[in-house]
Amino acid sequence: MEYLKNYIEAHAAEDLSLLQLSEITGYNASYISWLFHSETGIRLSRYISRKKMDLIDSYFLKPSLTINDIIEKTGFHSRRYFNIFIKRETGMIPKEYRARLLQKQASEITSQP
């Protein structure tokens, strides 16, 4: 599973599919999904979403990047799907979520000794 985790992390900017992951591992899609969940306690789709969010978070913290830049860098094919994904993962629209991340980062910087 470490290989699969590393692959997902390295390719988080791509539109990863279960079929693609099954081809890479040589196992059928149902089996890798089951195996991943049984070994990690996390559903494979959830893990992929989390890694994609980690990547998005890192880009959101770069104010010079526009939302369109981030959409392109993270492998989304449309702004609409990107918005839906962010809303599903965070409960906020991208603009609100980004503002919250930047605010949190600023408060962490100012509170350091």
UniProtKB/TrEMBL annotation:
Gene3D superfamilies: Homeodomain-like (1.10.10.60). It holds the Pfam family HTH_18. Coiled coil: none annotated. Keywords: DNA-binding, Transcription, Transcription regulation. Transmembrane segments: none annotated. Residues 2-100 form the HTH araC/xylS-type domain. One of its GO terms (molecular function) is sequence-specific DNA binding. This is AraC family transcriptional regulator. It comes from Candidatus Eisenbergiella pullistercoris.
